[in-house]
Design goal:
single chain; 149 residues; alpha+beta; Arc Repressor Mutant, subunit A; two-stranded antiparallel sheet; 4 strands; 48% helix
Length: 149
């Protein structure tokens, strides 16, 4: 059985981002203009960054278990240069993460627990199915990887 840990994350996130578009995740109007956090200098260059973020959140919840909003803000944050001082970590903006989580909850892919948010069986099945498709494409490119299925 192939799961999320067995496939390249970049390919999996790209495939899940395409699937998430049809499930009910919609980019808000403000998402085109907003930075992802105080560490970023500009808004994301990718016009479909919202769906990529949603797919990435799903994968993080699959791999790292129950996560709260502050955990995800820390994960999506980055370093900010402070003139001649050493760089410091800045968390990502909470709104972009929070709205994605709420949309994934409405799509019934994520549920809220006292310890944080977790994947529902529907969300886990979506990622398992997508990882199976990605693994099939990877095996086509390199036949020797078929023994790991």
């Amino acid at each position: 059985m192939v799961n999320v840990n067995d496939v390249p994350s970049s390919r999996l996130i790209a495939l899940v981002a395409e699937q998430v578009k049809g499930i009910g995740v919609q980019e808000p109007q403000w998402a085109r203009f907003v930075k992802t956090g105080s560490h970023a200098e500009r808004p994301p260059a990718d016009p479909a960054w919202w769906y990529t973020r949603a797919a990435s959140v799903l994968r993080k919840l699959y791999v790292h278990g129950p996560l709260g909003l502050s955990d995800l803000e820390r994960a999506y944050g980055g370093t900010k240069a402070l003139h001649y001082y050493p760089k410091h970590h800045r968390d990502a903006g909470g709104s972009s993460v929070r709205v994605v989580l709420k949309q994934l909850e409405q799509a019934e892919l994520v549920s809220k627990t006292p310890k944080g948010r977790i994947l529902t069986p529907k969300g886990r099945a979506l990622l398992d199915k997508a990882s199976k498709e990605v693994f099939a494409k990877v095996v086509e490119a390199d036949k020797e990887l078929a023994r790991y299925a």
